[in-house]
Design brief:
17 helices, three-stranded antiparallel β-sheet, Rossmann fold, alpha/beta, nine-stranded mixed β-sheet
Length: about 400
Protein backbone atom coordinates (compact mmCIF):
# COMPACT_ATOMS: atom_id res chain seq x y z
CA UNK A 1 0.00 0.00 0.00
CA UNK A 2 1.33 3.46 -0.90
CA UNK A 3 2.34 5.77 1.94
CA UNK A 4 0.24 8.97 1.90
CA UNK A 5 2.09 12.13 0.86
CA UNK A 6 3.61 14.07 3.77
CA UNK A 7 1.51 17.26 3.51
CA UNK A 8 1.68 20.09 6.05
CA UNK A 9 -1.42 18.66 7.74
CA UNK A 10 0.15 15.20 7.95
CA UNK A 11 3.43 16.54 9.32
CA UNK A 12 1.61 18.61 11.93
CA UNK A 13 -0.52 15.69 13.07
CA UNK A 14 2.52 13.39 13.17
CA UNK A 15 4.23 15.92 15.42
CA UNK A 16 1.13 16.24 17.61
CA UNK A 17 1.19 12.50 18.36
CA UNK A 18 4.28 13.37 20.45
CA UNK A 19 2.52 16.29 22.13
CA UNK A 20 -1.10 15.28 22.82
CA UNK A 21 -1.66 12.11 24.82
CA UNK A 22 -4.19 9.59 23.45
CA UNK A 23 -7.76 10.42 24.43
CA UNK A 24 -6.94 13.99 25.59
CA UNK A 25 -10.26 15.72 24.88
CA UNK A 26 -8.88 19.18 25.65
CA UNK A 27 -6.18 18.62 23.04
CA UNK A 28 -8.89 17.35 20.70
CA UNK A 29 -10.84 20.60 21.16
CA UNK A 30 -7.74 22.63 20.36
CA UNK A 31 -7.22 20.54 17.25
CA UNK A 32 -10.84 21.01 16.17
CA UNK A 33 -10.73 24.76 16.87
CA UNK A 34 -7.40 25.72 15.30
CA UNK A 35 -6.51 22.85 12.98
CA UNK A 36 -3.31 20.82 13.22
CA UNK A 37 -1.02 23.28 11.39
CA UNK A 38 -2.05 26.36 13.40
CA UNK A 39 -2.02 24.40 16.66
CA UNK A 40 1.59 23.37 16.05
CA UNK A 41 2.47 26.99 15.20
CA UNK A 42 0.92 28.18 18.47
CA UNK A 43 2.99 25.59 20.31
CA UNK A 44 6.32 26.10 18.54
CA UNK A 45 6.25 29.79 17.47
CA UNK A 46 3.83 31.69 19.72
CA UNK A 47 3.57 35.36 18.78
CA UNK A 48 2.01 36.57 21.99
CA UNK A 49 -0.65 35.90 24.61
CA UNK A 50 -3.23 35.53 21.85
CA UNK A 51 -1.57 32.22 20.96
CA UNK A 52 -2.17 30.75 24.41
CA UNK A 53 -4.50 27.76 24.44
CA UNK A 54 -7.78 27.98 26.39
CA UNK A 55 -8.08 25.78 29.44
CA UNK A 56 -4.35 25.12 29.74
CA UNK A 57 -2.43 26.13 32.84
CA UNK A 58 0.94 27.81 32.40
CA UNK A 59 2.74 24.64 33.45
CA UNK A 60 0.70 22.48 31.09
CA UNK A 61 1.21 24.84 28.19
CA UNK A 62 4.96 24.92 28.80
CA UNK A 63 5.06 21.12 28.90
CA UNK A 64 3.25 20.93 25.55
CA UNK A 65 5.59 23.51 24.04
CA UNK A 66 8.67 21.59 25.19
CA UNK A 67 7.28 18.42 23.62
CA UNK A 68 6.41 20.25 20.41
CA UNK A 69 9.91 21.72 20.17
CA UNK A 70 11.44 18.24 20.38
CA UNK A 71 9.06 16.63 17.86
CA UNK A 72 10.62 15.65 14.53
CA UNK A 73 7.74 14.44 12.32
CA UNK A 74 9.95 14.01 9.25
CA UNK A 75 12.17 11.60 11.17
CA UNK A 76 9.17 9.80 12.69
CA UNK A 77 7.60 9.28 9.25
CA UNK A 78 10.92 8.00 7.90
CA UNK A 79 11.30 5.61 10.86
CA UNK A 80 7.77 4.35 10.32
CA UNK A 81 8.39 3.77 6.62
CA UNK A 82 11.57 1.83 7.40
CA UNK A 83 9.53 -0.38 9.78
CA UNK A 84 6.90 -1.02 7.12
CA UNK A 85 4.39 1.37 8.71
CA UNK A 86 2.41 4.40 7.55
CA UNK A 87 0.65 7.32 9.22
CA UNK A 88 -3.07 7.86 8.63
CA UNK A 89 -5.04 11.02 9.37
CA UNK A 90 -8.74 11.90 9.16
CA UNK A 91 -9.68 12.49 5.54
CA UNK A 92 -7.43 9.73 4.20
CA UNK A 93 -9.22 7.10 2.14
CA UNK A 94 -8.00 4.43 4.58
CA UNK A 95 -9.16 6.30 7.70
CA UNK A 96 -11.92 4.35 9.55
CA UNK A 97 -14.73 6.89 9.76
CA UNK A 98 -16.36 5.19 12.75
CA UNK A 99 -13.52 6.60 14.86
CA UNK A 100 -15.12 10.00 14.36
CA UNK A 101 -17.76 8.85 16.89
CA UNK A 102 -15.14 9.57 19.57
CA UNK A 103 -15.55 13.29 18.90
CA UNK A 104 -12.76 15.25 20.64
CA UNK A 105 -11.26 12.00 21.94
CA UNK A 106 -10.68 10.84 18.35
CA UNK A 107 -7.06 9.92 17.61
CA UNK A 108 -4.89 12.69 16.21
CA UNK A 109 -3.75 10.09 13.68
CA UNK A 110 -2.99 6.39 13.48
CA UNK A 111 0.33 4.67 12.87
CA UNK A 112 -0.44 1.46 10.98
CA UNK A 113 1.88 -1.45 10.22
CA UNK A 114 0.74 -4.14 7.80
CA UNK A 115 -0.31 -4.57 4.20
CA UNK A 116 -4.11 -4.49 4.32
CA UNK A 117 -6.58 -1.60 4.23
CA UNK A 118 -7.58 -0.62 7.77
CA UNK A 119 -10.87 1.02 6.76
CA UNK A 120 -12.05 -2.00 4.77
CA UNK A 121 -11.06 -4.45 7.49
CA UNK A 122 -12.69 -2.40 10.25
CA UNK A 123 -16.05 -2.37 8.48
CA UNK A 124 -16.63 -6.04 9.37
CA UNK A 125 -14.78 -6.42 12.64
CA UNK A 126 -15.43 -7.59 16.20
CA UNK A 127 -13.33 -6.95 19.30
CA UNK A 128 -12.61 -9.88 21.64
CA UNK A 129 -10.80 -8.89 24.84
CA UNK A 130 -10.25 -10.22 28.34
CA UNK A 131 -8.01 -10.76 31.33
CA UNK A 132 -4.23 -10.99 31.14
CA UNK A 133 -4.04 -13.54 33.99
CA UNK A 134 -6.67 -15.74 32.38
CA UNK A 135 -7.68 -19.33 33.15
CA UNK A 136 -7.19 -22.23 30.71
CA UNK A 137 -10.95 -22.03 30.06
CA UNK A 138 -10.66 -18.34 29.15
CA UNK A 139 -7.70 -18.93 26.84
CA UNK A 140 -9.59 -21.78 25.14
CA UNK A 141 -12.70 -19.65 24.63
CA UNK A 142 -10.65 -16.73 23.29
CA UNK A 143 -8.94 -18.96 20.73
CA UNK A 144 -12.20 -20.67 19.74
CA UNK A 145 -14.02 -17.36 19.26
CA UNK A 146 -11.11 -15.95 17.25
CA UNK A 147 -10.97 -18.94 14.91
CA UNK A 148 -14.77 -19.17 14.66
CA UNK A 149 -15.15 -15.52 13.68
CA UNK A 150 -12.26 -15.80 11.22
CA UNK A 151 -13.79 -18.84 9.54
CA UNK A 152 -16.96 -16.82 8.95
CA UNK A 153 -15.07 -13.95 7.34
CA UNK A 154 -14.91 -11.50 10.24
CA UNK A 155 -11.87 -9.45 11.24
CA UNK A 156 -10.95 -10.00 14.90
CA UNK A 157 -9.59 -7.05 16.91
CA UNK A 158 -7.77 -7.25 20.24
CA UNK A 159 -4.89 -5.64 22.10
CA UNK A 160 -1.98 -8.12 21.72
CA UNK A 161 -1.64 -8.31 25.52
CA UNK A 162 -0.88 -11.46 27.49
CA UNK A 163 -3.73 -13.81 28.31
CA UNK A 164 -7.03 -13.58 26.42
CA UNK A 165 -5.77 -11.09 23.80
CA UNK A 166 -2.91 -13.34 22.76
CA UNK A 167 -5.18 -16.40 22.62
CA UNK A 168 -7.66 -14.51 20.42
CA UNK A 169 -4.97 -13.42 17.95
CA UNK A 170 -3.45 -16.92 17.82
CA UNK A 171 -6.81 -18.56 17.24
CA UNK A 172 -7.57 -16.14 14.42
CA UNK A 173 -4.19 -16.60 12.75
CA UNK A 174 -4.40 -20.39 13.09
CA UNK A 175 -7.64 -20.28 11.09
CA UNK A 176 -5.97 -18.17 8.39
CA UNK A 177 -8.07 -15.18 9.41
CA UNK A 178 -7.59 -11.42 9.56
CA UNK A 179 -6.69 -9.80 12.89
CA UNK A 180 -5.90 -6.27 14.08
CA UNK A 181 -3.87 -5.52 17.21
CA UNK A 182 -4.45 -2.06 18.69
CA UNK A 183 -1.31 -1.22 20.66
CA UNK A 184 -0.58 1.12 23.56
CA UNK A 185 2.91 1.79 22.18
CA UNK A 186 4.61 2.50 18.87
CA UNK A 187 3.90 -0.05 16.14
CA UNK A 188 7.64 -0.77 15.92
CA UNK A 189 7.82 -1.64 19.65
CA UNK A 190 7.32 -5.22 20.84
CA UNK A 191 5.23 -5.35 24.00
CA UNK A 192 4.97 -7.63 25.86
CA UNK A 193 8.39 -9.01 24.99
CA UNK A 194 7.08 -12.55 25.16
CA UNK A 195 4.80 -11.78 22.20
CA UNK A 196 7.60 -10.90 19.80
CA UNK A 197 6.79 -13.79 17.46
CA UNK A 198 3.02 -13.18 17.66
CA UNK A 199 3.34 -9.46 16.96
CA UNK A 200 5.62 -10.25 14.02
CA UNK A 201 3.01 -12.63 12.61
CA UNK A 202 0.27 -10.02 13.03
CA UNK A 203 2.42 -7.47 11.18
CA UNK A 204 2.79 -9.95 8.31
CA UNK A 205 -0.73 -11.38 8.17
CA UNK A 206 -2.77 -8.63 9.80
CA UNK A 207 -2.45 -5.06 11.03
CA UNK A 208 -0.77 -3.35 13.99
CA UNK A 209 -2.41 -0.03 14.89
CA UNK A 210 -1.39 2.60 17.44
CA UNK A 211 -1.77 6.28 18.28
CA UNK A 212 1.77 6.68 19.58
CA UNK A 213 4.72 7.49 17.32
CA UNK A 214 7.60 5.10 16.56
CA UNK A 215 9.65 4.10 19.58
CA UNK A 216 7.10 5.16 22.22
CA UNK A 217 6.54 2.74 25.08
CA UNK A 218 3.32 1.91 26.95
CA UNK A 219 2.18 3.22 30.31
CA UNK A 220 -0.76 2.04 32.44
CA UNK A 221 -2.89 5.02 31.39
CA UNK A 222 -2.14 4.42 27.72
CA UNK A 223 -3.46 0.86 27.96
CA UNK A 224 -6.74 2.17 29.34
CA UNK A 225 -7.04 4.96 26.77
CA UNK A 226 -6.31 2.75 23.75
CA UNK A 227 -9.38 0.68 24.68
CA UNK A 228 -11.68 3.41 23.37
CA UNK A 229 -10.12 2.89 19.91
CA UNK A 230 -10.80 -0.86 20.07
CA UNK A 231 -14.42 -0.12 21.00
CA UNK A 232 -14.96 2.53 18.32
CA UNK A 233 -13.22 0.64 15.53
CA UNK A 234 -15.46 -2.45 15.74
CA UNK A 235 -19.16 -3.34 15.50
CA UNK A 236 -19.15 -4.89 18.95
CA UNK A 237 -16.97 -5.99 21.87
CA UNK A 238 -16.90 -9.43 23.47
CA UNK A 239 -15.40 -9.83 26.96
CA UNK A 240 -14.22 -13.37 27.76
CA UNK A 241 -12.86 -13.04 31.32
CA UNK A 242 -12.56 -9.93 33.47
CA UNK A 243 -12.44 -9.08 37.15
CA UNK A 244 -14.49 -6.23 38.59
CA UNK A 245 -11.60 -3.80 37.98
CA UNK A 246 -10.43 -4.59 34.48
CA UNK A 247 -9.35 -2.72 31.38
CA UNK A 248 -11.54 -5.09 29.38
CA UNK A 249 -14.59 -3.67 31.15
CA UNK A 250 -13.44 -0.20 30.12
CA UNK A 251 -13.54 -1.38 26.50
CA UNK A 252 -17.01 -2.86 26.96
CA UNK A 253 -18.39 0.28 28.59
CA UNK A 254 -16.85 2.45 25.89
CA UNK A 255 -18.59 0.24 23.32
CA UNK A 256 -21.91 0.69 25.15
CA UNK A 257 -21.44 4.45 25.26
CA UNK A 258 -20.77 4.50 21.51
CA UNK A 259 -23.87 2.44 20.77
CA UNK A 260 -21.91 -0.67 19.80
CA UNK A 261 -22.93 -4.19 20.80
CA UNK A 262 -21.50 -5.42 24.10
CA UNK A 263 -21.27 -9.16 24.77
CA UNK A 264 -19.89 -11.42 27.47
CA UNK A 265 -18.87 -15.07 27.72
CA UNK A 266 -20.04 -16.55 31.04
CA UNK A 267 -17.74 -18.46 33.33
CA UNK A 268 -18.10 -20.30 36.67
CA UNK A 269 -20.11 -18.31 39.21
CA UNK A 270 -17.28 -18.95 41.71
CA UNK A 271 -14.54 -17.50 39.45
CA UNK A 272 -13.31 -14.02 40.32
CA UNK A 273 -11.99 -13.75 36.76
CA UNK A 274 -15.55 -13.97 35.45
CA UNK A 275 -17.11 -11.66 38.05
CA UNK A 276 -16.74 -8.57 35.88
CA UNK A 277 -18.26 -10.33 32.86
CA UNK A 278 -21.22 -11.50 34.94
CA UNK A 279 -21.76 -7.94 36.14
CA UNK A 280 -21.88 -6.82 32.49
CA UNK A 281 -24.38 -9.57 31.74
CA UNK A 282 -26.61 -8.33 34.57
CA UNK A 283 -26.77 -5.03 32.69
CA UNK A 284 -27.06 -4.41 28.96
CA UNK A 285 -24.51 -6.93 27.69
CA UNK A 286 -25.68 -10.01 25.79
CA UNK A 287 -24.56 -13.52 26.72
CA UNK A 288 -22.71 -15.32 23.89
CA UNK A 289 -21.02 -18.71 23.75
CA UNK A 290 -19.74 -19.04 20.19
CA UNK A 291 -19.00 -17.14 16.99
CA UNK A 292 -22.46 -17.75 15.51
CA UNK A 293 -24.15 -16.01 18.44
CA UNK A 294 -21.79 -13.03 18.12
CA UNK A 295 -22.46 -12.71 14.39
CA UNK A 296 -26.22 -12.90 14.95
CA UNK A 297 -25.87 -9.62 16.89
CA UNK A 298 -23.26 -7.71 14.87
CA UNK A 299 -23.89 -9.20 11.42
CA UNK A 300 -26.31 -8.36 8.66
CA UNK A 301 -29.97 -9.31 8.50
CA UNK A 302 -30.41 -13.06 8.21
CA UNK A 303 -27.06 -14.01 9.79
CA UNK A 304 -28.76 -16.05 12.51
CA UNK A 305 -27.23 -18.53 14.92
CA UNK A 306 -28.56 -22.09 14.55
CA UNK A 307 -31.46 -23.03 16.81
CA UNK A 308 -30.30 -24.65 20.07
CA UNK A 309 -32.01 -27.92 20.95
CA UNK A 310 -31.23 -31.37 22.23
CA UNK A 311 -30.97 -34.46 20.00
CA UNK A 312 -34.08 -35.63 18.16
CA UNK A 313 -35.35 -38.87 19.78
CA UNK A 314 -37.73 -41.45 18.27
CA UNK A 315 -40.43 -40.31 20.72
CA UNK A 316 -40.21 -36.80 19.21
CA UNK A 317 -41.30 -38.20 15.81
CA UNK A 318 -44.47 -39.90 17.02
CA UNK A 319 -47.87 -38.55 15.98
CA UNK A 320 -49.74 -36.81 18.83
CA UNK A 321 -52.27 -39.66 19.36
CA UNK A 322 -49.52 -42.31 19.31
CA UNK A 323 -47.53 -40.30 21.83
CA UNK A 324 -50.58 -40.06 24.14
CA UNK A 325 -51.08 -43.82 24.03
CA UNK A 326 -47.40 -44.36 24.85
CA UNK A 327 -47.57 -41.91 27.75
CA UNK A 328 -50.67 -43.71 29.12
CA UNK A 329 -48.76 -46.97 29.59
CA UNK A 330 -47.63 -47.51 33.21
CA UNK A 331 -43.95 -47.93 34.01
CA UNK A 332 -44.68 -51.30 35.59
CA UNK A 333 -47.05 -54.09 34.63
CA UNK A 334 -49.31 -54.60 31.63
CA UNK A 335 -52.65 -52.98 30.82
CA UNK A 336 -55.57 -53.71 28.49
CA UNK A 337 -56.14 -51.70 25.32
CA UNK A 338 -59.56 -50.44 26.50
CA UNK A 339 -57.97 -49.01 29.69
CA UNK A 340 -55.24 -47.33 27.65
CA UNK A 341 -57.90 -45.88 25.35
CA UNK A 342 -59.66 -44.30 28.32
CA UNK A 343 -56.42 -42.80 29.69
CA UNK A 344 -55.33 -41.53 26.25
CA UNK A 345 -58.76 -40.11 25.41
CA UNK A 346 -59.32 -42.20 22.30
CA UNK A 347 -61.30 -45.23 21.14
CA UNK A 348 -60.25 -48.83 21.81
CA UNK A 349 -59.79 -49.49 18.08
CA UNK A 350 -57.64 -46.37 17.72
CA UNK A 351 -55.59 -47.36 20.76
CA UNK A 352 -55.01 -50.86 19.33
CA UNK A 353 -53.84 -49.40 16.03
CA UNK A 354 -51.40 -47.13 17.86
CA UNK A 355 -50.17 -50.00 20.04
CA UNK A 356 -49.31 -52.08 16.97
CA UNK A 357 -47.44 -49.08 15.58
CA UNK A 358 -45.54 -48.71 18.87
CA UNK A 359 -44.82 -52.45 18.84
CA UNK A 360 -43.21 -52.19 15.40
CA UNK A 361 -41.03 -49.33 16.69
CA UNK A 362 -39.88 -51.32 19.75
CA UNK A 363 -41.65 -49.25 22.41
CA UNK A 364 -44.19 -51.86 23.62
CA UNK A 365 -44.72 -55.61 23.74
CA UNK A 366 -47.81 -57.77 24.05
CA UNK A 367 -48.48 -59.92 27.12
CA UNK A 368 -51.56 -62.06 26.33
CA UNK A 369 -54.34 -59.54 25.72
CA UNK A 370 -52.49 -56.77 27.53
CA UNK A 371 -49.63 -54.42 26.67
CA UNK A 372 -46.56 -53.11 28.50
CA UNK A 373 -43.46 -51.01 27.88
CA UNK A 374 -40.33 -52.74 26.62
CA UNK A 375 -37.05 -52.59 28.55
CA UNK A 376 -35.66 -50.15 25.94
CA UNK A 377 -38.60 -47.80 26.39
CA UNK A 378 -37.99 -47.72 30.15
CA UNK A 379 -34.26 -46.83 29.87
CA UNK A 380 -33.19 -43.14 30.07
CA UNK A 381 -32.96 -41.55 26.61
CA UNK A 382 -29.17 -41.47 26.52
CA UNK A 383 -28.86 -45.13 27.59
CA UNK A 384 -31.14 -46.77 25.04
CA UNK A 385 -29.75 -48.94 22.33
CA UNK A 386 -29.31 -47.03 19.11
CA UNK A 387 -30.14 -43.74 20.87
CA UNK A 388 -33.83 -44.64 21.20
Amino acid sequence: MNTPRASAERLARAALTRVIEPGDERGGRWLRTYGAVDLMRRLTHPQGPEDDLPGASTARLESHRRRAALADPVQDLATATAAGARFLIPGDEEWPRQLDDLADARPVGLWVRGHSDLRIWALRSVAVVGARACTPYGAHMGAVLGSGLAEKGWVVVSGAAAGIDGAVHRGTLAAGGATIAVLACGVDVVYPRGHAELIGRIAEQGLLVGELPPGDHPTPSRFILRNRVIAALTRGTVVVEAEYRSGSLVTARAAQKLGRFTMGVPGPATSGLSAGVHELLRGEAVLVTDAAEIIELVGDMGELAPARRGPVLPRDLLAPTTARVLEALPSRGAVAARDLAREAGTSTDEALGRLYELHSLGFVERVGDNWKLTADALRPAGARRGGA
